[in-house]
Amino acid sequence: MKSSLLILSLFSVLLFTGIDAKSFQISSPQNKLSKEGKIDSLNNWVEKNIEKDINNALSNSLNALELSKEINYPLGEAQSMINLGWIYYRMDDYLQAIDYAFKGHQSIIPLNKPNLTIRSFFNIGAIYSEGSGQLELALEYFEEAYERSLDIQDRSMSGRALNNRAFILTQMGRYDEALQLITPFLADKKDDFLESYARRTLGDIQKVQGDTAKAINSYLIAYQILEKEQSYSTLTSCIIRLAELYLATGQNYKAKLYLDKGEIISENNHFREQLIKINQLNSNYYENLGNWKEALFYQKKYASMQDSVTNQINSKNMGRMEAKIDFDQRLNAINTEMALNEKLINEKLQQQIFRRNIFLAGFIIMLVLVTIVLFTSYRIRRSKYQAESANRAKSDFISSMSHEIRTPLNGVIGFSDLLNSTPLDANQKQYITLINQSAKSLMEIVNDILDFSKIEAGKLEIELSQTNIYELGIETVNLVAFQAHQRSIELILDIDEQIPKMVLADQVRIKQILINLLSNAVKFTKKGEITLKIERLGEELENFSKIRFTVSDTGKGIEPGNQEKIFSAFTQEDSSTTRKFGGTGLGLAICKKLLNMMGGKIYVESELNKGSRFWFEINFETLEEKQKEPALPIENLYALIVEKNQRHGKVIQENLSYLGASSDLALSQEEAEQLLRNSAPYNLMLVNHDIKEGNGAHFIQKLKSEMNLIPNDIKTILMHNAFVQNSRIPEHVDALLIKPYKKPDFLQILNKLFHPKDTKSTFDQNMANQEDLDQLKEISPSILIAEDNQVNMILTKKLLHSFIPKAVIMEAKNGKKVIDVYNENEVDIIFMDIQMPVLNGYEATEAIRKMEAKTGKHTPIIALTAGILNNERQKCLEAGLDDYTSKPMNKKDIGKILHQWLLEKIS
Asked: DSSP labels for 725-743?
């Protein structure tokens, strides 16, 4: 069918043009026709792709020129030479550029091809402009190109001509004229090459006029368009301009980012002059940083390449250009001769039926090819639409799956927590604990799968915010402390005191990575220790801090052949690991992808049966440097540390030294007794509860009552593992410090120890502050819960009544019912499920906010959602809700929300 249509189209064109069968007979060999078609295809490809792929453009142009000469094909030869003139101009080889440009121009005039003639004028104008600096002469050629473009109504060529004229006028200092020419392209905002060229010229003008900020903005807009267009030569020119301005304004880091990209593009495309400029700017960059070695290296590269190009231009190119200075005179002679011979040319055209037939055949083939391309483009667009629809469906499914799975899990986890807090016998407590742990494990698996799906779908975004790295490290260790305690593993936190106070980071994702690494370390370590070390590295850019996070353990280690394998999705070290230790095998894959998004990379070192070490480094923008620590509450603090784990003891010693205190470390009871007998002027003792050959609390009692080695003026702190069952402080101990050692906890205890008015009970870190919770028990607000799942409704009511026993709680099972209850009652706060029948949570909230707009009232609405995809929190806040909590509900988070939204409102 398709072949029949092709034959029918061919005969239709022939009939339309009035060509008889005899005139269409081809007497030349068939291979000549095929070679001309190949030459035209090569030249057309080059014309479209010079700016995108200059290396292949050069190869194809030379190939087309050789084939054209071989079969004596003037049109192909002329087009090839015009293309080569532009290619060598872009590659800064003016010797070759001027040669091909003039030869191509002379060859194209007799062929009467307006488009190629205009392109030839562009070639010559550009070479005059940048090769010899003859700006007036270059301007004349661009004006001629513009006039001829108007004759054939080619917007692209006329626009390029106007932009080139504006660029030359800017170089000549005629800024008002240049602005007048580029204004239409700035107003169009079509995001095409013409606008990008105009933006670059505008930036040049703004730069000269001293408006650096506007110039940078103009170059950035041009850069974005050119990067999309893949116009690498002009793109590199914008990169150089941006780098110059960033260096001039002290933004060295941004300048270096652009210089690195420009260097790669210039080397790949042989842009020699642009590479020279980039080397010079790289030298300036390292000079600004004080790195004289690198600065000298780039300065030498710059000088070497500059001398080479300058010598070539002076000895060859400029000589050739001066030899061609009479070109315009010869061009006028050619035009005059062509006018006189026009009649002769017309007569010869009658003898070229054979060539015309070839052109017609080529036109028909091109028509068929265009049809095929259009059909293919349609299929591609349709496939793209189908893929996008499938991706949207996938995202909707993941979001829906998140809600459907997490909703029942919310009930399981919540009620098992509540049941665990009631009186139970030993077996019942064990069973309910296993149920709770299983549900939480399932929740972790669901979260891993959803996180991985979000990353794969491109839906996960890095959200930067003000972050305290020191506090982040403490919070992270606290979250895994119970796991480590259950396995009798020593957990150590070692934070470099030189890290900045505040940086710009995605603290949620960094914490997620660290928790994953620490949880893996706990899972694969049977005994020994796990250390989280956070340190600041030396090699930093201005206003940035390079911080390394390291998690090391003394676990089973990883086989050398499996150390890369563990970062693949759904993969663990060996096939038995999943069955033995559990997990999806997604954790490290997610860590790797998250770090890639933050510009970091994860590394691993491991030795079998000795342990593993994972680390990653990230450059954070520094918001606030570390401030000097306040003075200790006691002068000349001298501490004795009794700790069987040497590494943990050393961390404490280093921290005390940073605070300005002295200390000794004893790894056993005997060493501690010996140090105390030496009558060192100690005023503080830190004793680990778990020491060699005994119990820390008993050891303190022995030293005080039996051996009289601890006088009354020495304060004693017992260091205990997390989540001890009985956290009451013994009478002979002054304070309890939960391990691992954390400086803020230690300083808090130290301040209270040396202030007699504080009681000993305040030192117990496991005792919660009940002040806020007690205030909630005294109020009686009206609370509306919108929840369609009966299990979650009961759980939410139980949680709220545990905080506010006097609360009046109303229920609504769908969005419409929410609005009805709100209209009929005074409501102090609403807990709104997002996915409900009739009206969802967003729609119900919108209706309530419209009613409130008329009354001036505002009721806090808190989102309850099991969905965690696509930035749920941001969606809730944008929809008019006041706060957000995910399912399963966290009791601590609910307490904070009630305190924030009720205590300030209800007296």
From this structure: S--PPPTT-SEEEESSP-H
Closest CA to 875 of 509, 458, 389, 399: 399
- Which of 836, 850, 837, 838 is closest to 879 using CA atoms? 850
Q: Does the pLDDT at position 547 exceed 80? A: yes
> Which residues on neighbouring strands pair with residue 553, listed in sequence order?
530
CA distances in angstroms from 596 to 455, 507, 566, 590, listed in the order given:
11, 15, 16, 10
Please give the Cα distance from 534 to 499 (Å, whole number). 8
CA distances from 487 to 225, 339, 491, 725 (A): 57, 98, 11, 15
Nearest to 449, CA basis, from 874, 866, 863, 868: 868
Q: Which of 88, 172, 113, 112 is CA-nearest to residue 137?
A: 172
CB count in 10 Å sphere of residue 21: 7
Q: Give ∠ CA 549-554-556 in degrees, rounded to 5.
A: 115
In tens, the pLDDT along 222-264 reads 888 888 878 888 888 889 988 888 888 888 888 888 888 888 8
State the Cα–Cα distance between residues 131 and 203, nearest whole angstrom: 23
- Supply the DSSP symbol for 890: P
Task: Report d(CA 283, CA 286) in Å as an integer.
Answer: 5
Q: Are 841 and 834 in contact (CB under 8 A)?
A: yes
- C-alpha 178/C-alpha 201 separation (Å) is 8
DSSP 574: S
Tell me how many helices (H) and strands (E) the chain has: 34, 19
Pairing relationship of beta strands 611-624 and 544-553 according to DSSP bridges: antiparallel
22 DSSP 8-state letter: T
What was the pLDDT predicted at 723?
A: 54
pLDDT tens figures, 1-13: 444 434 334 334 3
Is 619 in contact with 540 (CB distance < 8 Å)? yes
Can you read off the two tokens belonging to residue 902?
């009720």
- Residues 859-887: tens digit of each pLDDT: 999 988 765 554 667 778 888 888 888 77
| Confidence check: pLDDT of 555 > 50 | yes
- Measure the N-to-C terminal CA separation of the chain; round to a whole number of Å: 84
Q: How confident is the model at residue 179 (pLDDT cuts 50, 70, 90)?
A: confident
Q: Which of 26-40, 59-73, 114-128, 892-906 has the lowest mean pLDDT?
A: 26-40
Look at residues 821, 820, 818, 780 and name the one whose alpha carbon lies nearest to residue 801. Answer: 780
Do the bridges between strand 694-695 and strand 690-691 make them parallel or antiparallel, or are there none, so unpaired? antiparallel
Q: Which residue has the tokens 């205030």?
A: 775
Residue 134 has pLDDT above 70, yes or no: yes
Among positive and negative, which fits the CA dihedral 124, 125, 126, 129? positive
Residue-level pLDDT at 203? 85
Whether 265 contacts 52, CB under 8 Å: no
CA distance 500 to 545: 8
Cβ-count burial of 315 within 10 angstroms (0-12 exposed, 13-18 middle, 19+ buried)? Answer: exposed
Q: Tokens at residue 814, please?
A: 């769908």
C-alpha 214: how far from chain center: 26
- List of long-range contacts for 287-290, beta carbons under 8 Å, 24+ apart: 288/247, 288/250, 288/252, 289/252, 289/542
Residue 318 has pLDDT above 60, yes or no: no
DSSP 672-718: HHHHHHTT----EEEEESEETTEEHHHHHHIIIIIS--S-TTSEEEE
What number is the average pLDDT over the span 260-271? Answer: 84
- CB neighbour list of residue 291: distance below 8 Å, 6 or more residues apart: none
679 token code pair: 């009558």
pLDDT in tens, 746-772: 888 888 888 655 444 334 443 334 566
